Amino acid sequence: MNTSPGQQLERPRPPIIGTAISRDRREALTPMAAITLPVGAGPVGMAITPDGLRAYVTNYGEASVKVISTATRAVSATIGVGIGPWGAAITSDGQLVYVANYGGNTVSVIATASNTLVATIDLGTANPVGLAVTPDNSRVYVACQAQNEVRVIDTATRTDIATIPVGVGPRNITIAPNGQRVYVSEEGSNAISVIDTVTNTVNAVLTGFLFPRVPAITPDGTRLYVPNYGGNTVDVVNLATNAVIASIPGFTLPFMVTMTNSGRLAYVTNNGDGTVRALSTTTNTVLSSYGGLNVPHFLAASPDGRTLYATNHGNTSVSVLAGLTGLLPNQGPTGGGTLVTIIGTHLTGTTAVRFGTRLATHIVVISDFEISVISPAGQGVVDVTVTTPGGTSNPVPFYYIPPPRIGSLVPASGPAAGGTTVSVNGFNLATVTKMTIGTTTVTPTVVSDSLLTVATPPTVAGTAPVVITTVGGIVGNANFTYLNPPSVTGCTPATGPAAGGTSVTINGTNLSGATTVTFGATTASFSIASDTRIFATAPAHATGAVNVTVTGGGGSATAPSPYRYT
To answer: Which of 13, 160, 171, 236 has minimal CB crowding within 10 Å?
Structure first.
């Protein structure tokens, strides 16, 4: 290639992945410290331009929008809007910003080229809250709480062209990437209405949520992530079936979910504890947490996913956070085959990815900041490096997890009513991702790599297989036996001397698992004749009536009539 005099070709830069951490930790994804920017009273909404150069923040308490320069990380402009600005949305070409003014019952239109207010759209007594622009920029859908409806604005004429009745308390708007569906979260009806954008009618209502707030759709349009503000979970909805396929715990008053452009990572603001949690959409697990925020509301990710902007509604600031970098996930089975996303810098032109000395396969360059590969087989902790024309990256550890094993269950049986605390002893159990007893999924407590504890769920009597899934594989070589509780129908004879020694026949059902027989508070010797009969020797006792109780693995039962000492 010819170059003009003085012109030099830029050399490819060496790739960088992850952050430097010690090899004895399994946390290649590490959040960086936040930077706090003052913006104004009661910041709520947040939207970032497609080029990532500016972020627009609505200040509910002072009827303004602040413009943040992402290069200088400082407020570069202030734009006056209507009373109580809440949601903000930017067109895909980055030319216009739409702001819903809750108190002013209007939508403000801001031109980004001049950062000036160019139009105000009157919605009457609507109390607009959240809004979103269709991918083709032709319409804006606005959630209006006062009338329990969604208004549709034509962006060409800047007029209100349709009103769509929805459920109680519409709050936020999320539009599918193809523009065919609009999802309206309704905190009053604990539902999400689905609007067909061709007919502008509700064609489905998703239920089962608890105060749903600001959801997000994966870039491929297949899943909707819904924060349950009242349930401290994030639900995952399969948009092909409109069914909840996962409910992810570990949040505290979750307010908003936002996706990175690749859709591999999601971030969730938590009003309750002032955090932002990073979520893997591949495994639907929480990866890490950022602290120190003040009632964070809206959140936006830069186009490259490397910077996050969160409004602190509890004070007057915006927190600027560094997006996670490194390996996602950073562990997998020894047999290989794990789809690993590598987040870093200067990854274009990747020619090789090595896990230790072994080459990864199926390298896909998603962007200059992200690639995906399939891990090879391996053992222990290995260094992962990326090679491009610019050189080879710094190493980041990947952890190979051996398959789990179950040694024993203690106890191995318990009542069909459930509630038995079982210790699961074994090996390589610390990365457990799923555990079932019978057909019921349970949540174990990880005590160590060799010990889990779990409470048994209720079921019918019989043998239930125990299956544990970890990052390293699946094991199901143990069983838990559920026992029916005993019942006692009577004792013969029903009286005897206080000196004890009387042979008493106890009749009932499910008696073969009996472990103790008591007369009052005194333990008696006994022998099991059958599942319906026990022979016990009455112990010495003061005169009077006492209960006769049989206890076994399935529970306890007391004779309907007391035994009387004479």
So the answer is: 13
Q: What is the DSSP letter of 212?
A: B
CA distances from 524 to 224, 491, 500 (A): 61, 14, 10
In sequence order, the 6+-apart residues with CB closer than 8 A to the CB of 194 are: 181, 182, 183, 184, 202, 203, 204, 205, 206, 242
DSSP-assigned beta bridge partners for residue 246: 236
50: helix, strand or coil: coil
CB 249 within 8 A of CB 165: no
Query: How far apart, in whole angstroms, are the C-alpha atoms of residue 343 and residue 365?
Result: 11
Residues 191, 176: Cα–Cα separation, whole Å:
17
Environment class of 53 (CB within 10 Å of its CB; exposed 0-12, middle 13-18, buried 19+): middle
pTM greater than 0.70 (yes/no): yes
| Neighbouring C-alpha atoms within 13 Å toward the C-beta of 533 | 7
Q: Across residues 117-146, what is the average pLDDT? A: 96
For the record, the structure tokens of 549 come out as 């109780």
**475 within 8 A of 404, measured Cβ to Cβ:** yes
Amino acid of residue 351: T
Q: What is the CA radius of gyration of the chain?
A: 32
- What residue has token string 């060799």? 450
Q: Give 549's DSSP letter.
A: E
By the 10 Å C-beta count (0-12 exposed, 13-18 middle, 19+ buried), 14 is classed as middle
Among the listed residues 433, 525, 437, the one whose alpha carbon sits nearest the alpha carbon of residue 478: 437
Q: And the tokens for 442?
A: 């349970």
Token pair recorded at residue 476:
């199901």
Phi, psi angle pair for 503, to nearest 5°:
-80, 120
What's the one-letter identity of residue 104?
G
Give the Cα separation of 282 and 269 in Å (integer).
19
Q: How confident is the model at residue 388 (pLDDT cuts 50, 70, 90)?
A: very high
- Amino acid type, 55: A
How far CA 61 is from CA of 44, 53, 202, in Å, comes to 9, 25, 33
Helices (H), 121-228: none
The amino acid occupying position 524 is A
Q: Please report the beta strands in 370-411, taking only residues with DSSP state E, as ranges in sequence order.
A: 370-374, 381-388, 391-392, 396-401, 405-410
**Contact (Cβ atoms closer than 8 angstroms) between residue 329 and residue 282:** yes
pLDDT tens-digit map of 453-507: 999 999 998 999 999 999 999 999 999 999 999 999 999 999 999 999 999 999 9
Per residue in 206-259, pLDDT (tens digit) is 999 999 999 999 999 999 999 999 999 999 999 999 999 999 999 999 999 999
Tokens 């125990």 label which residue?
A: 466
CB atoms within 10 A of CB 466: 22
CA distance 437 to 454: 10
pLDDT in tens, 351-385: 999 999 999 999 999 888 889 999 999 999 999 99
Please name the residue that has the structure tokens 């083709």: 136
d(CA 227, CA 218): 14
